[in-house]
C-alpha cells in the first residue's frame, strides 16, 4: 500500500495557495499574525461567500484548489482537523446569547458553529456523499485526520482522501489565550523564539489542505509513509514508535534528512524537542516552521506542507533549519514530530516518490 | 484483516440513571428520563430535558476528584461512563498492550465558557477547558493506560464515528483495544441553538408520530470497549457481542436539514449492511436516530423504507427515554441496542400515537420480546454526517 500527496495548498501568514514563498518566507515580529487571504472569488461565488466566516472560505478555497489540481471532485473521504472549529461563529452566538440573556437569537451562527461545518460544507459544495468526518483534538487535530485517512487506505476502503487542518484565531480568542500565557508578552522575533527562554509563542492561523491518493501520478508531490499519535508517552515510547515506523519501511534513523519539529519559542514546549533530539537524533538536522506561521492548533498541517515542498524541491533552505545556516540538499525523508503541551504527540513520515 | 471486532465492556450514564442496570430497568419499566429541568440554569427552563440526576459536585464526590481540580460537566459524565466500561472489560486487571481512547463531543467545556464569557475574570482556568480536546484529555487521564487519544466532533453522530475509528484502529493492528464513545452535557449554547432553529418540543419528544413537534435534549455519556476476538480470548474476557458492520456517509444536502429522500441515511444503512455482509432481512431491530423533529423522522423513515422495502424490522427511537444526548447519542444508543440484543427485547418508542402518513411503518409502541440476532443503530448529525453501526450476537 502506498499513499501519495497528489496536491497540497495552504492559506497562512505566508503568501496564499502556492509555495513560491518557500525560498523567501516572510518573518514576523507581532504577537498575533493573521493569514493572508487569496481572492476568494476564484473559488466561491461572492453571494455565497458573504454568508461564510473566514475559516469556511479558507477551507472551501483550499479544498477546491486541490480538487481542481487533481480532478478528483468526489474524494472517497473528506476529513478535517480543527482545534477550535468555527470559533468566530461560536463567539458570535455566545456573545449574543450572554448579552441578550438568551433572547432574540438568530440560528445562522449556531448552524455554522459546530466543528463539522467545515467538512460538511465541502461535501455540500462537491455534492459528495462519501465518508466525512472531523477531529478536534487540540494540537493533534490535523494528524488525527491524517491517521484516519491513512488507515482507510490501509484497509482498502478508499482510493482518495481530502484531508485538511483549519484553524482561525479571532481577536477575542487571542485575548483569552493571552490570559493563560499562550503568547509571549514582549516583542517576538526569530532570535527570541530561537532562544526560547520564556513561556509563550506567537499566534497564527492555519489552513493546510491535501489530496491524498493511492496511485503515483506525474504530479504526486511525495509519499505519506506513516502517521502515529501518542498520548503522554515516555521518551522510550516515542523512540519505540519512531523505530517501528521507520522499520516498516526499512529505514534507519540516519537516513532521515531532517526532523521537522513544532518548536515555537515556548521554553516548556521546545525543551521536549531538544531532549528528543539529544536522545534519538544527535546527528540529524533539526528543522522548524512555526516561527514562520505562528502557533495554532493545526499548525502541523503547515509543517507537513513545508516538508512536502522540501521533498518535492529536494531542498531545505536554512530558514527552516534550527541550528544550521547552510541549506540541505537531496532531501528524501522528513520525519515530522509535533506535540501539544507534552500530552498529545504525533509523528508523520514523508518520503520522496 | 476480516477478524471479528467484539464488544467486551460498556458504560453508560444518562437521564435514565448511572450504569447498564439502571438503564435497562428504566427501559423495561418504560420510565423515561425526560422531565423538568433541574441542573441547567437557563431562561428557557420550560423545555423538558433528560438530565443526569447528579450535580457536578455529586459526581466529583463519587469519583473522588480533588476540590482544586478544574473539570467541566462533559468530562465528568465521561469519567462516570468510562469507569463502568473499564471495569466490565477488566482493562485494569488484564491490560491489553495498547489502548486507544476516542471521545466524541461538540460542546466540550462550553457549559462553563457560557457562564464566564466574555471576560473569564478570575476564571481563567476555564479558558483552557473550552475546547473539545481538553474534555478528552481530562477523561483519558483518569485511567493510566491510554497510549493514544483523539476527539471526533461531528455533532450528533460524533460517538458513532468514534466507534468506527476505534474499529479501524484495531483492524489495522495499531491498537489492541479501543475505548470509544461520546459525552455531552446540556449547555445553554446548544439549547438556545436548537431553540432558535425551532426544533425543540415543549413536551417530551414524540419520535415518528404524525404530530411530532421537535426534539427533547438530553445529556449523558457512554463508551464501548472494542477488541479482536483473539485478544479477548487471550485476556480471558467474556465478550458481549460483535460489532459486525459500520458506515459513515454524508447527506450533502443542507447544513442542518436532512434530505427528503434520506440519501445520506440510506447510504449509511446500506453500506453498514454491506460491511457486515448482511442482507436487510437479517436485521431484527433498528434503534433509529428518531429525534422527533419533522425533518429527521420523515427523512430517516423514508431511508428505512428504501433500504428495507416491505420487510421493515421493528423500529424504535429511545430518544423518547434519554432525550437527544447529541454527541453522546451514537454510543448511548449503541449501548441500548446491545442491551436489547443481550435481553432479546425491543424497547418501546414512547409517546407515539398517530402514524405518519409518509411512512409505511409505525414504531414499536410497547416493549416486545423477540429473539434478536442483529441490531442496527443510526446516528445522524448536523451537516449530514450520517453513520450506522450493526451489532450482532455471538452465535
How would you sum up this structure, described in words?
The complex is a heterodimer of chains A (353) and B (395). Chain A has 353 residues and is α/β, with parallel strands linked by helices. Helix content of chain A is 36%, strand content 20%. In chain A, helix 2 packs across helix 5. Chain A has 2 domains: 210 residues, Thiolase/Chalcone synthase (Peroxisomal Thiolase, Chain A, domain 1, 3-Layer(aba) Sandwich), CATH 3.40.47.10; 129 residues, Thiolase/Chalcone synthase (Peroxisomal Thiolase, Chain A, domain 1), CATH 3.40.47.10. Chain B is α/β, with parallel strands linked by helices and 395 residues long. In chain B, a hairpin with a 2-residue loop joins strand 1 and strand 2. The relative contact order of chain B is 0.18. Classes of the chains: A alpha/beta (353), B alpha/beta (395).
Write the layout of secondary structure elements.
The complex is a heterodimer of chains A (353) and B (395).
Chain A lengths: L3 E8 L34 H5 L3 H17 L6 E5 L5 H13 L7 H5 L5 H10 L4 E5 L5 H14 L5 E8 L3 H9 L10 H6 L10 E8 L8 E10 L3 H14 L9 E4 L5 H14 L5 E3 L1 H4 L5 H15 L1 E2 L11 E2 L3 E8 L3 E8 L2
Parallel strand pairs in A: 2-3, 2-4, 7-8, 7-11
Antiparallel strand pairs in A: 1-5, 1-6, 4-5, 6-12, 9-10, 11-12
Helix pairs in contact in A: 2-5
Chain B lengths: L4 E10 L2 E2 L1 H9 L27 H8 L9 H17 L9 E6 L5 H7 L15 H9 L5 E7 L5 H14 L5 E8 L3 H9 L23 E9 H7 L5 E10 L12 H14 L8 E3 L6 H15 L6 E2 L2 H4 L6 H15 L1 E2 L21 E2 L4 E8 L3 E8 L3
Parallel strand pairs in B: 3-4, 3-5, 8-9, 8-12
Antiparallel strand pairs in B: 1-2, 1-6, 1-7, 5-6, 7-13, 10-11, 12-13
Helix pairs in contact in B: 2-3, 3-5, 6-12, 9-10
Amino acid at each position: 500500500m502506498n499513499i501519495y500527496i497528489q496536491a497540497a495548498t495552504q492559506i497562512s501568514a505566508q503568501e496564499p495557495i502556492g509555495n513560491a514563498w518557500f525560498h523567501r518566507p516572510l518573518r514576523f515580529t507581532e504577537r498575533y499574525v493573521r493569514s493572508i487571504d487569496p481572492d476568494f472569488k476564484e473559488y466561491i461565488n461572492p453571494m455565497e461567500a458573504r454568508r461564510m466566516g473566514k475559516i469556511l472560505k479558507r477551507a472551501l478555497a483550499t479544498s477546491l484548489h486541490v480538487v481542481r489540481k487533481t480532478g478528483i471532485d468526489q474524494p472517497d473521504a473528506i476529513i478535517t482537523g480543527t482545534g477550535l472549529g468555527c470559533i468566530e461563529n461560536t463567539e458570535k452566538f455566545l456573545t449574543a446569547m450572554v448579552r441578550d440573556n438568551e433572547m432574540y437569537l438568530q440560528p445562522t451562527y449556531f448552524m455554522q458553529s459546530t466543528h463539522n461545518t467545515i467538512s460538511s460544507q465541502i461535501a455540500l459544495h462537491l455534492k459528495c456523499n462519501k465518508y466525512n468526518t472531523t477531529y478536534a483534538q487540540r494540537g493533534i487535530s490535523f494528524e488525527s485526520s491524517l491517521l484516519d485517512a491513512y488507515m482507510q487506505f490501509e484497509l482498502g476502503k478508499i482510493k482518495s482522501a481530502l484531508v485538511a487542518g483549519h484553524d482561525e484565531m479571532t481577536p477575542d480568542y487571542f485575548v483569552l489565550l493571552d490570559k493563560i500565557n499562550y503568547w509571549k508578552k514582549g516583542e517576538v522575533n526569530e532570535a527570541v523564539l530561537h532562544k526560547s527562554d520564556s513561556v509563550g509563542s506567537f499566534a497564527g492561523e492555519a489552513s493546510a489542505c491535501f489530496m491524498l491518493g493511492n496511485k503515483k501520478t506525474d504530479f504526486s508531490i511525495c509519499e505519506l509513509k506513516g502517521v502515529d499519535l501518542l498520548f503522554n508517552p515516555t521518551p522510550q515510547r516515542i523512540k519505540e514508535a519512531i523505530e517501528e515506523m521507520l522499520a516498516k519501511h526499512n529505514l534507519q534513523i540516519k537516513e532521515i534528512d531532517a526532523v521537522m519539529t513544532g518548536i515555537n519559542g515556548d521554553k516548556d514546549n521546545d525543551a521536549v524537542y531538544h531532549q528528543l533530539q539529544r536522545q534519538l537524533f544527535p546527528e540529524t538536522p533539526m528543522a522548524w516552521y512555526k516561527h514562520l506561521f505562528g502557533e495554532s492548533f493545526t499548525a502541523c498541517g503547515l509543517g507537513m506542507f513545508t516538508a512536502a515542498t522540501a521533498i518535492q524541491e529536494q531542498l531545505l533552505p536554512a530558514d527552516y533549519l534550527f541550528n544550521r545556516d547552510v541549506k540541505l540538499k537531496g532531501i528524501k525523508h522528513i520525519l515530522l514530530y509535533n506535540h501539544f503541551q507534552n500530552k498529545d504527540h504525533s509523528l508523520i513520515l514523508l518520503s520522496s516518490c | 484483516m476480516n477478524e471479528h471486532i467484539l464488544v467486551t465492556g460498556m458504560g453508560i450514564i444518562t437521564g435514565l440513571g448511572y450504569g447498564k442496570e439502571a438503564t435497562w430497568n428504566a427501559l423495561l419499566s418504560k420510565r423515561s428520563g425526560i422531565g423538568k429541568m433541574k441542573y441547567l440554569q437557563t431562561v428557557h427552563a420550560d423545555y423538558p430535558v433528560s438530565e443526569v440526576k447528579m450535580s457536578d459536585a455529586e459526581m466529583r464526590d463519587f469519583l473522588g476528584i480533588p476540590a482544586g481540580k478544574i473539570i467541566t460537566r462533559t468530562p465528568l459524565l465521561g469519567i462516570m461512563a468510562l469507569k463502568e466500561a473499564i471495569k466490565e472489560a477488566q482493562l485494569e486487571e488484564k491490560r491489553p498492550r495498547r489502548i486507544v481512547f476516542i471521545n466524541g463531543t461538540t460542546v466540550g467545556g462550553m457549559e462553563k465558557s457560557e457562564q464566564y464569557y466574555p471576560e473569564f475574570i478570575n476564571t481563567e482556568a476555564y479558558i483552557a477547558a473550552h475546547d473539545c480536546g481538553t474534555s478528552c484529555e481530562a477523561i483519558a487521564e483518569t485511567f493510566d493506560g491510554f497510549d493514544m487519544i483523539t476527539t471526533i466532533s461531528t455533532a450528533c453522530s460524533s460517538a458513532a464515528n468514534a466507534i468506527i475509528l476505534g474499529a479501524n484502529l484495531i483492524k489495522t493492528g495499531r491498537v489492541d483495544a479501543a475505548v470509544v464513545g461520546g459525552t455531552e452535557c446540556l449547555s445553554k449554547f446548544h439549547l438556545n441553538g436548537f431553540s432558535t432553529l425551532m426544533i425543540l418540543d415543549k413536551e417530551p419528544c414524540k419520535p415518528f408520530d404524525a404530530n411530532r413537534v421537535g426534539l427533547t435534549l438530553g445529556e449523558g455519556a457512554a463508551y464501548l470497549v472494542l477488541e479482536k476476538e483473539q485478544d479477548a480470548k487471550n485476556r480471558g474476557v467474556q465478550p458481549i457481542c460483535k460489532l459486525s458492520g459500520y458506515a459513515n456517509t454524508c447527506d450533502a444536502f443542507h447544513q442542518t436539514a436532512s434530505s427528503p429522500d434520506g440519501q445520506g441515511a440510506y447510504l449509511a444503512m446500506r453500506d453498514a449492511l454491506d460491511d457486515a455482509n448482511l442482507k436487510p432481512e437479517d436485521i431484527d431491530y433498528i434503534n433509529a436516530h428518531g429525534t422527533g423533529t419533522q425533518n429527521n423522522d420523515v427523512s430517516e423513515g423514508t431511508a428505512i423504507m428504501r433500504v428495507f422495502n416491505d420487510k421493515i424490522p421493528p423500529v424504535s427511537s429511545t430518544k423518547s427515554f434519554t432525550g437527544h444526548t447529541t454527541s453522546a447519542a451514537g454510543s448511548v444508543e449503541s449501548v441500548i441496542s446491545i442491551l436489547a440484543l443481550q435481553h432479546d427485547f425491543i424497547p418501546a418508542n414512547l409517546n407515539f400515537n398517530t402514524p405518519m402518513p409518509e411512512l409505511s411503518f409505525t414504531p414499536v409502541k410497547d416493549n416486545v420480546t423477540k429473539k434478536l440476532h442483529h441490531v442496527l443503530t443510526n446516528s445522524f448529525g448536523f451537516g449530514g454526517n450520517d453513520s450506522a453501526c450493526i451489532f450482532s450476537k455471538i452465535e
